[in-house]
Design brief:
The protein has five helices and no strands. It is mainly α. The protein has helices at about 1-30, 35-50, 55-80, 85-105, 110-130.
């Protein structure tokens, strides 16, 4: 009986720690400035896609534009009624679609394949997160 209780207590402690770490990570991401977000995305894309210096500079411009637009929309959503939020979500989706199209236009064929895979993973992750909310 003691072993079961100890195991249950250990499992609970580990679960609580994991949840707390995820919450801290999410809070840190939400507090990023658009410039920090664009820098992080550019660095990640450069590593994953092998962007040239010119491609990375253009990627950063597109990323910063999207980050600024979407941050403003997220801030607006905090003070908007529930009925209006879907419109803001559609505007964020339009910003994201524009970003993906712009980025796709600067990539070569090999990079476009990697980018499409990355985009698919992001969309799956977003759908999973929306299902949990």
């Amino acid at each position: 009986m003691k072993k079961i209780l100890l195991t249950l207590a250990a499992f609970s402690a580990l679960t609580f720690t994991a949840v707390a770490q995820n919450d801290a990570k999410k809070a840190a991401q939400e507090n990023m400035t658009p410039e920090q977000r664009a820098d992080k995305e550019t660095k990640h894309a450069t590593e994953k896609l092998g962007l040239s210096t010119d491609q990375a500079a253009k990627f950063k411009v597109y990323s910063l534009e999207r980050a600024r637009s979407n941050k403003a929309l997220r801030e607006q959503a905090k003070t908007t009624s529930k009925e209006e939020r879907p419109k803001l979500k559609e505007q964020r989706k339009a910003n994201n679609d524009k970003f993906f199209a712009n980025v796709n236009s600067i990539l070569n064929a090999e990079q476009q394949v990697k980018w499409a895979e990355h985009k698919k993973k992001m969309q799956e992750k977003q759908a999973k997160n929306e299902a949990h909310d």
